[in-house]
Specification:
The protein has one helix and ten strands; from the N terminus they run H-E-E-E-E-E-E-E-E-E-E. Helices cover 9% and strands 48% of the residues. The protein folds into two domains: 20-54, no CATH class; 56-175. By secondary structure, the protein is mainly beta. Strand 1 (58-63) and strand 2 form a beta hairpin. Strands 1, 2, 3, 4, 5, 6, 7, 8, 9 and 10 form a ten-stranded antiparallel sheet that branches.
Length: 177
């Protein structure tokens, strides 16, 4: 008998959770800023737009076939020189940093870019400068919310025999100032 009552209480509890409302009557069964979905007029998942919470930008790439996901990403736009650059790094040892920038309009499109990649491993520091054309495609340049998105790839050189290939690079909703 106790098992049946316990089972009924669980069923009632689960059924009552299907249409939860918060204080003030918010209906969580409808799109909202806590549903884990990019909907309404959100810029990212549950951020920007109606949610009012800034979106944290993210940069992903493949570095010589190894996955890279930024733990920090930001952009800098300089109106006086018409230049833009985004900078990102991860928190995995060895510490890795990617910087890509260009000079030109703050608008979507394919850009002629320059970039760098460097690695800090203990006290060893390796710096790879790009001396070939970088592929940089800006897919969204939101000047109102100061967010930029796009994709990139490049090959960087520390020396004639030491290079790194950055491929499948994507930057999404990187906030700039």
């Amino acid at each position: 008998m106790i098992r049946i009552l316990f089972f009924l209480l669980i069923v009632i509890f689960v059924a009552s959770c299907k249409k939860q409302t918060a204080e003030g009557g918010a209906d969580f069964s409808k799109p909202n800023c806590f549903d884990g979905i990019k909907n309404q007029d959100e810029i990212g998942i549950d951020c920007g737009g109606i949610c009012g919470v800034p979106c944290n930008g993210i940069v992903t790439a493949s570095i010589n076939g190894s996955s890279f996901t930024s733990s920090n990403a930001y952009g800098v736009a300089n109106n006086s020189t018409s230049s833009f650059q985004f900078i990102c790094n991860d928190s995995i040892s060895p510490y890795r940093n990617i910087q890509v920038g260009y000079t030109g309009t703050f608008a979507p499109g394919t850009k002629t870019a320059q970039g760098t990649y460097f690695v800090i491993n203990g006290i060893t520091y390796k710096y790879y400068n790009i001396n070939t054309t970088t592929t940089l495609n800006v897919t969204s340049f939101d000047t109102q919310n100061k967010l930029v998105s796009g994709n990139f790839s490049f090959k960087g050189f520390a020396s004639a025999t030491d290079s790194v290939i950055i491929s499948n690079g994507e930057f999404n909703n990187v906030r700039y100032q």
